[in-house]
Design a protein that fits this description.
The complex is a heterodimer. By secondary structure, chain A is of the alpha+beta class. Chain A is built from 8 helices and 9 strands. Chain A has a 5-stranded mixed β-sheet. A 4-stranded antiparallel β-sheet of chain A has the order 1-4-3-2. The model of chain A has no long low-confidence stretch (mean pLDDT 83). Chain B is built from 8 helices and 14 strands. Chain B is elongated, with a radius of gyration of 18 Å. In chain B, helix 2 runs parallel beside helix 3 and helix 6 packs across helix 8. Classes of the chains: A alpha+beta, B alpha/beta. At the A-B interface, helix 3, helix 4, helix 6 and helix 7 of A face helix 1, helix 7 and helix 8 of B. Chain B: Pfam families: Response_reg, Trans_reg_C. Chain B: This is Response regulator transcription factor. Chain B: Keywords: DNA-binding, Phosphoprotein, Transcription, Transcription regulation, Two-component regulatory system.
């Protein structure tokens, strides 16, 4: 639920509560006023009736008021004076009408009478209803218009905020952008935008620094390695060298090569983790990549007499093309490297899933541990131990999952997206 | 053939120079941007090797200047920067190849020869060694005029061996040349032996002497002796 919707909901609830409470209170207070008024009138009538009854022998009795009624009942003892509201049946109209009654006791010529003065409330109640409803309606109208005005205003006033939000949503660090916003008249939003601009400036700067650092580090390490390798290559050409010297040189060269590959793999890993590869919006079709990699690796596959079977559909996850290549390459080379002689590889590509299964020796412990850097089966000491870590990282940054399962002699690596 | 090497690392530059001198190339060295500009404007080169990070300037600027002054010269960027954007920028500016450090000198040599071949002879120059003749345009190989059919890898291997004739080639450099980034699988060099064996057999079947010598523990050497 967005901010404006939430505000709107609270406002509606608050308005309804205010409206109901207000209407109720208004109704009660109007009723109270009317009751007071009727009571006063009844008391005034009572004074007249009492006076008349006391002088009944000297004065003619006349009707007090239209619609009011007066009842006299002889009683043995007097009671207390009370005022009640009661509905009474009108035989002529055949319906009940509300009355307010004042009951009191009066002695006439030695006999006690219960005097009931009744006053029709119909018109007053109708008036009351009309007043309460009119006022309620006016208040409701006011609240609704306030609500509409409010939501319109909020939408207008919050517009810069949503523009900022939208810009942030589209923000991509890899593009080295600094977010710039158009001016707003709201101080808070101006402040927010300024802070964000500064923030992205710093972000872009440190990202640039980091990128430069990784590249410079690579440069600094690769250059001495290039010197080492070039010197070794020059020395190897020397025909006066003995066989053991040549073997030593070859070992040095191998180690330097390994160091260089390790450095490159670590740099690649860092770059992927820094999300320097922009993900595409279109899924990469993995089928041609898999076919190409299988062709590149066919020497190895043939040499180890591995049977490869594929079941591929032209689908794939959304990711950078280069990363997709590295992912496929690492999964396939892993399946070849840890395979057994005359082994099998099965590749299945279906929507949302890529599975690479290979035969291999059973492993001890949790297969998921093989995703850690430099974790490898000791028998293959020459491998860098970074292949699966790279594959895992690629999947992680792109929101895919990579799982490793071992079942009997089958090793199963699955990418799901 | 005349080369210019623009590279600030003296030790590396010396190795490269020595390597190409044995090939009877004239290889001049410019340790910085200023010297490089002087040399470019005074002399003509067949191929220029440019390092991108120079103490007093950007190698890319040197590439731009070279393209402007003598568009016929081949350009190979040698750089430790291996990010995709750098490669794209470099190649877009008109360099012919991009080699990331560290590289094998034999690989650099093969690439330089390929660039010179492409530039000077539109790829038509025949590659010859002893009884072997290669037409790079057609990708065809003949021994004594009899054509032999090679796989893509065997062809690449043969061209590489001839480009670096009379030199010892390490197994790593061969593997890297043939498989590029996939050479990560080099924990096992058996697959190189397979290709070498097949290539040697195909050549010798057509009466070619065995030019390929195995150097114990190191690699191979392609020579007529």
């Amino acid at each position: 639920m967005n901010l404006l919707e939430r505000i709107f909901r609270y406002q509606i609830v608050a308005s309804l509560v205010i409206l109901l409470l207000g209407a109720g209170l208004f109704f009660l207070s109007v009723r109270y006023l009317i009751d007071e008024e009727v009571n006063k009138e009844l008391l005034r009538s009572k004074v007249k009736v009492s006076w008349q009854l006391r002088h009944i022998d000297t004065l003619p009795v006349y009707i007090l008021q239209l619609g009011d009624s007066l009842q006299l009942q002889p009683v043995r003892y007097p009671g207390k004076m009370i005022a009640v509201e009661r509905r009474m049946y009108n035989a002529n109209e055949r319906q009940y009408h509300p009355y307010r009654q004042l009951i009191f006791y009066e002695q006439v010529e030695g006999q006690w009478y219960r005097v009931i003065l009744s006053k029709l409330l119909d018109q007053r109640q109708q008036l009351m209803k009309a007043v309460v409803m009119t006022v309620t309606f006016i208040v409701a109208l006011l609240l609704v218009s306030m609500l509409m005005l409010n939501s319109w205003l909020s939408e207008r006033l919050w517009r810069p905020f949503y523009r900022t939000l939208n810009a942030l949503d589209k923000y991509q660090l890899e593009k080295h952008e600094v977010l710039e916003f158009s001016r707003t008249r709201t101080t808070e939003f101006t402040q927010l935008n300024q802070t964000l601009t500064q923030f992205t400036e710093r972000l872009a700067a440190s990202y640039q620094n980091l990128k430069e650092f990784t590249e410079n580090a690579s440069h600094e390490i690769q250059t001495p390695l290039a010197v080492i390798l070039s010197k070794i290559e020059g020395m190897i050409q020397d025909e006066t060298l003995s066989e053991s010297q040549l073997v030593s040189l070859s070992e040095v060269s191998e180690a330097a090569n390994r160091l260089s590959r390790l450095n490159q793999a670590l740099l690649l890993l860092t770059k992927i983790e820094n999300r320097q590869f922009l993900a595409g919006t279109e899924p990469v079709n993995l089928t041609p990549i898999i076919h190409r990699k299988l062709r590149d690796l066919e020497d190895l596959i043939e040499q180890r007499n591995i049977t490869v079977s594929t079941k591929l559909e032209p689908v794939g996850p959304v990711m950078h093309q280069a990363l997709a290549e590295i992912l496929v390459n690492n999964l396939l080379t892993n399946a070849i490297r840890y395979n057994v002689e005359d082994g099998k590889i099965e590749i299945q590509l279906t929507p949302g899933k890529l599975t690479v299964c290979n035969t291999g020796r059973p492993i001890q412990g949790d297969p998921e541990l093989l995703f850690e850097r430099f974790r490898k089966e000791s028998t293959h000491s020459a491998s860098l131990g970074l292949g699966l870590a790279l594959a895992k990282t690629i999947c992680q940054v792109n929101g895919q999952t990579l799982t490793y399962r071992v079942q009997d002699e089958w090793h199963m690596l699955t990418v799901t997206w | 053939m005349k080369l210019l090497l623009i590279e600030d690392e003296k030790a590396l530059a010396t190795s490269i120079q020595n390597y190409f001198q044995r090939e009877n190339f004239v290889c001049e060295w410019a340790p910085d941007y200023g010297t490089a500009m002087e040399k470019i404007h005074v002399y003509e080169y067949d191929c220029v090797l440019v390092d991108l990070m120079l103490p007093d300037g950007d190698g890319l600027q040197a590439v731009r200047e070279l393209k402007r002054k003598s568009p016929e010269t081949g350009i190979i960027i040698i750089s430790a920067k291996n990010s995709l954007d750098d490669r794209i920028v470099g190649l877009n500016l008109g360099s012919d190849d991009y080699l990331t450090k560290p590289f094998h000198l034999s690989e650099l040599n093969a690439r330089v020869q390929a660039v010179i071949r492409r530039r000077n002879f539109q790829g038509n120059q025949q590659i010859g060694f002893g009884k072997i003749h290669i037409d790079p345009q057609e990708h065809s190989v003949a021994v004594d005029g009899y054509e032999i059919i090679l796989t893509r890898k065997e062809y690449d291997l043969l061209v590489y061996l001839i480009a670096n004739k009379n030199r010892v080639l390490t197994k790593e450099s061969i593997a890297e040349h043939l498989w590029g980034d996939d050479a990560d699988l080099m924990d096992n060099f058996d697959f190189i032996y397979t290709h070498i064996k097949n290539l040697r057999k195909k050549l010798m079947d057509k009466g070619c002497p065995d030019y390929l010598k195995s150097i114990y523990g190191v690699g191979y050497k392609f020579s007529e002796q």
